[in-house]
Specification:
This protein is α/β, with parallel strands linked by helices and 387 residues long. Helices cover 29% and strands 23% of the residues. Helix 2 packs parallel to helix 3 and helix 7 crosses helix 8.
Length: 387
């Protein structure tokens, strides 16, 4: 059965996107800002007790940042370049956290000079850099969590530390004149198992208690990260279900005395608002008796579809032609053999699909423009439009 727009977009949203994109050259991304705003409002309603720190890396478009600003949201910033972007629209540093645990001393100082006093960390070296470049700042320690087996885009190993080290870092932070403020974690992007938050929150509670009992340190904040899903081929529970379960986990560990709760959504807010439009460049078979056609399109891994690496994220693909279908391999346009989007997982596309036909990639508003290469094979970065 072929993908249908009504299963992914409300009302006439897709038709409006399609009509707008008809006059555009492919490849391009079209983002519906009304969908973004609606999903942001839903998140705020589902977590009324939490502060939203939008993960700018998902999609840093000013059009989206302004919607967040209007609703009083905060921002999870990973570099000085992202910081400059939010400062340019009038956001002040007290609404920003430097959420990247890998950062230069000069960048820490730049953030601090611009009013940012909330910093993530997961190592002694980074913590000492913060103490030197941002004296007196608040810090939160990122811990390692499980969830890599059930997240479509895992975020383990590179970021975070074990719980015993988190204790040591909080104690050291106080000794260095910093404020040990909280604990953070990330259960993995596109996390389908809500239970991943349960074990992570339990770790946070344990750290809170140990620091209070053994060191007299009272933490104030728990950063639950992101991980809320978008609508790809592998469907998930709705956001309301995530919110109900996560709230239950918090109550089980903290009763009704929640610490300050921070969320860092990105994908869940903007992915569903976007449609990436591409064109079929070539269709071929590798031999006379080949069972699968190869469909080459003008968007590939280096044009913004890097999350198809290892076929991790499976985007819904829609074409207007109908009729008998056949399994195909989908590949990008560049001169790199790694630029194959889906080979093991076979998409079914109509036999009458032809060169020049358009392909519509649903739920592509997140991590496409930001992953787009500058000039591989001379192709320009992915263009984005906001309606």
């Amino acid at each position: 059965m072929q993908i249908q727009p009504k299963d992914y977009y409300e009302g006439d949203t897709f038709e409006r996107i399609k009509q707008y994109s008809d006059k555009l050259e492919t490849p391009c991304l079209v983002v519906d800002t009304a969908t973004f705003a609606r999903q942001l409002d839903e998140l705020i309603a589902c977590f009324p007790y939490a502060k939203t720190y939008y993960a700018i890396k998902a999609n840093p478009a000013v059009e989206l940042l302004k919607i967040l600003d209007e609703r009083g949201c905060n921002f999870d910033v990973a570099s000085r370049y992202e910081l400059d972007k939010v400062l340019s629209i009038g956001v002040t540093g007290d609404r920003v956290s430097y959420g990247n645990t890998i950062k230069k001393s000069k960048d820490i100082r730049y953030f601090h000079e611009n009013g940012v006093d909330l910093f993530a960390t997961d190592s002694e070296a980074d913590l000492r850099n913060i103490a030197q470049a941002a004296p007196g700042a608040r810090v939160f320690v990122r811990i390692l969590t499980e969830g890599s087996q059930t997240a479509d885009w895992p975020l383990s190993r590179k970021f975070g530390c074990q719980t015993d080290m988190a204790l040591d870092l909080c104690v050291l932070a106080r000794e260095l004149g910093l404020i040990p403020y909280g604990i953070s974690f990330h259960v993995g992007s596109q996390q389908r198992d809500i239970g991943a938050w349960d074990s992570a929150i339990a770790k946070v509670k344990w750290i809170f208690e140990r620091l209070q009992e053994e060191h007299g340190i009272q933490l104030k904040m728990a950063n639950l990260g992101g991980g809320f899903p978008a609508n790809y081929l592998s469907r998930t529970n709705d956001l309301q279900t995530y919110a109900e379960e996560i709230t239950r986990f918090l109550r089980e560990d903290f009763d009704d005395n929640f610490p300050e709760i921070i969320l860092e959504p990105g994908r869940s807010l903007v992915a569903n608002a976007g449609v990436l439009v591409s064109e079929v460049v070539l269709i071929s078979r590798k031999n006379r008796t080949g069972l699968h056609r190869w469909v080459y399109t003008d968007i590939g891994k280096f044009g913004g579809m890097i999350e198809t690496m290892d076929e991790a994220i499976k985007y819904p693909v829609y074409v207007e032609k109908t009729g008998e279908v056949e399994e195909v391999v989908i590949a990008g346009p560049t001169c790199d053999s790694a630029d194959i989007l889906y080979e093991n997982y076979k998409y079914e596309l109509p036999l009458n699909l032809a060169m020049g036909d358009r392909m519509y990639w649903f739920s592509t508003g997140a991590y496409t423009t930001t992953y787009s290469a500058i000039e591989f094979n001379g192709f320009p970065p992915l263009k984005a439009y906001f309606i």
